[in-house]
Amino acid sequence: FFEKSLKGKTIITTASATREEIDPVRFISNYSSGKMGFALAQMAFNMGAESILISGPSNLETPFGVNRINVKTALEMLNALDTQIQKSKQDTYVIMAAAVSDFKPKQTSNYKIKRQNKDTFILELVQNPDISKTLKEKYPHIKLIGFAAETNDLIENAKAKIDKKGLEFIVLNDVSRKDIGFGSLNNEVTIIFKDGKIEHLPFMTKKEIAYNILKLL
Ligand code: PMT
């Protein structure tokens, strides 16, 4: 039984890793499985919200009651978010749990790149837009929740992202640990609010973490 405390809200969650193609057989991506984002989308529905999940490639099953939109690249994710925010007639929350590729190849080759007669091969990358920052600038009324996947200087690095991206709070993940973070069933996170307040959620399942995050909305 879940209290329907999120009734009247649209919660758009992003999940999994984005993919940036180098050529038809290779891409740049990361280890995000989608588990954290899918847990949030499921729990948002259970708690009464209209729940929309925008996911990068993932084998996970679509949670019951959730409207899932599949995307591949960071740019597709940004466009899908833009469309859903425009459609929403209710209080709109965007939870950025996806691990978005900050860089993409400057050019995608239409053909498989062949081995070459030299030891080095230079792949030129360009930056993707910062999705959170772009959306907050275009739609100041939305409430944005960020995630941070960090390996070092955890609190400092995560804090810096709150203002830069226009977040209400950020959920800090220590992805240097093997028992939490990428791919695991469990997580342990530190939530840093825009006023500087800090709250720690101890080791628990990603579903329980999701519930505790959503209670804050
Ligand atoms: O999917 P799982 O296997 O369950 O793992 C969960 C997780 C560890 C991937 C997840 O909890 C997590 O930490 N997700 C965010 C990872 C990330 O991309 O962190 P970041 O520090 O690079 O980005 C900070 C925030 O900006 C994130 O909310 C990200 O979605 C957002 N972002 C990033 C890049 C970009 N171009 N635009 C963005 O808006």
Number of DSSP strands? Answer: 12
Radius of gyration: 18 Å
Described by strand count, sense and barrel closure, the largest sheet is: 8 strands, mixed
Assigned CATH architecture:
3-Layer(aba) Sandwich
CATH superfamily: CoaB-like
Overall shape: globular
What is the typical, i.e. mean, pLDDT?
Answer: 95
CATH topology value:
Rossmann fold
Helix/strand structural class = alpha/beta
* CATH class identity: Alpha Beta
User: Between the first and last Cα atoms, what is the distance in angstroms?
Assistant: 19 Å
* Count of all domains: 1
Question: What topology, given as strand order, has the largest sheet?
Answer: 5-4-1-6-9-10-11-12
Structural description of this entry:
The chain is of the alpha/beta class. The protein has a single domain, classed as CoaB-like (Rossmann fold, 3-Layer(aba) Sandwich). Helices cover 26% and strands 30% of the residues. It is built from five helices and twelve strands. It has helices at 35-46, 74-87, 131-138, 154-165, 206-215, and strands at 9-15, 20-23, 26-28, 50-55, 67-70, 91-96, 103-105, 125-127, 143-150, 169-174, 186-193, 198-205. The strands form three sheets. It has an eight-stranded mixed beta sheet, sandwiched between helices. Strands 2-3 form a two-stranded antiparallel ribbon. Helix 1 crosses helix 5 (206-215). The mean pLDDT is 95. Ligand PMT binds at residues 16, 32-36, 74, 96-100, 102, 128, 130-132, 146-149, 161, 165, 173, 175, 181-183.
